[in-house]
Amino acid sequence: MTILNVALGQRSYDILVEEGLLDRAADHLAGFARDGRLIVVSDETVWAAQGERLSRGLGPVQAAPIILPPGEASKSWATLAHLVDRLLALGVERRDHIVAFGGGVIGDLAGFAAAIVNRGCGFVQIPTSLLAQVDSSVGGKTAINVPAGKNLVGAFHQPSLVLIDPTVLATLDARQLRAGYAEIVKYALIEDAPLFAWLEENGPALLGGEPGLLHHAIAAAVAGKARIVAEDERETLGRRALLNLGHTFGHALEAETGYSDRLLHGEAVAAGIVCAFQFSVERRLCPSADAERVQAHLAATGLPTRLGDIGIAADGRRLVAHMMHDKKREGGRLPFILTRGIGQAFVDMSVELEEVEHFLDRRA
Ligand SMILES: NC(=O)c1ccc[n+]([C@@H]2O[C@H](COP(=O)([O-])OP(=O)(O)OC[C@H]3O[C@@H](n4cnc5c(N)ncnc54)[C@H](O)[C@@H]3O)[C@@H](O)[C@H]2O)c1
Ligand SMILES: O=C(O)C(=O)C[C@@H](O)[C@H](O)[C@H](O)COP(=O)(O)O
Ligand SMILES: [Zn+2]
After folding, report:
1. Tell me: the pLDDT tens digits for 263-301?
2. Which positions are annotated as binding NAD(+) (predicted)?
């Protein structure tokens, strides 16, 4: 078992990574149950694929499931209201722990509900998509989307425990696996160049479901995230913002495609990372060979790397208008996560939005 920790004083918690953890869920979750019961929030697809296994793994602890529709559209006011009402109807108390059992959508939504019900109760993450295992289950960012933009309403609310069982990925489809892979690549590109070289060599076998490789990559990405979150929990020190590499561009692409299945979050991040590298090349910050290497690797895994791959027009003004809703905005300026090369991301406050518009106008 790999045990990692997010060091946040009283809000510190462990992240356990082990194959078969779900089958032994009671060992780790029985202490969170009240009257032998745990409320589990999941989506229809995850519950159909893995719910029985979790219920068995909980042994004598009874799961009280709240099952929501799958997909990004569930990160909405309507589903949040429904979830909060269900939690209250089940009599959730402040000291209770809700179990978020699903991908990033369920984690972000159930985490946000946990942050606001009774002015805050506990929660545990059992991430079931690769994206949630390497990224969204750790760090306490919870949110819903609103018409103005992605993740614009939410809270920082840390889980008490994260249980990662890579074997649950056996039922995840290949496109979703690739989307999660994009966030692993992001962690390598931020400040772990050796991990990127490792991914270039092992990525294809990892995406084929090779368990040892999945475990290694999940642990590496989560270790990187845990370190950065511990240094800058609320993204105020210019450190956590690095985790947004590819996201300023990526969130604009998600907005343009209506947060739909047309473009998954991880796919938007892949295309956004390529934009961040190419923009850094244009600013003479990053060697063009690094940008080409990154694009080649992402494209080789089948991820979109160009606006044309997504079917989006190169309309700089439109895309920058989406970016203006970014939570990192400060006094009308947007920090951009740029790079000096693979493993050398940094936050740049000096970017003019006109420059970004012109850059995007030339992306095909
Ligand atoms: N809070 C954070 O720090 C953070 C970080 C990254 C992404 N996110 C958010 O996460 C969301 C994306 O998460 P996601 O990619 O996991 O999407 P998701 O939650 O929609 O899951 C993807 C799809 O896979 C299915 N699925 C999940 N696990 C499965 C399994 N084991 N077997 C079969 N099907 C399974 C789900 O039902 C869903 O249809 C976005 O909203 C993004 O903004 C948040
Ligand atoms: O945890 C973080 O911090 C991240 O930025 C991780 C991102 O992968 C994730 O998509 C996050 O939800 C984006 O945050 P946002 O604040 O830009 O909405
Ligand atoms: Zn992300």
Report:
1. 999 999 999 999 999 999 999 999 999 999 999 999 999
2. 104-108, 128-129, 141, 150
Distance CA 122, CA 133 (A): 19
**Ligand 1: residue whose CA is nearest its atom 37:** 45
Residue 322 appears among annotated catalytic residues: no
Question: 144-182, pLDDT tens digit by residue?
Answer: 999 888 899 999 999 999 999 999 999 999 999 999 999
349: number of CA atoms within 13 Å, CB side? 7
Q: From the candidates 75, 97, 178, 265, which is the catalytic residue? A: 265
- Does the model's ipTM exceed the 0.95 cut? yes
Domains of the chain: 2-171 (3.40.50.1970), 174-361 (1.20.1090.10)
CA 306 – CA 38 distance, rounded (Å): 44
Ligand 3 mean position to 244 CA, how many Å?
7
Q: Quick check: is 247 catalytic?
A: yes
Catalytic residue among 141, 186, 322, 363: 141
Q: What angle do CA 344, 188, 226 make, to 5 degrees?
A: 100
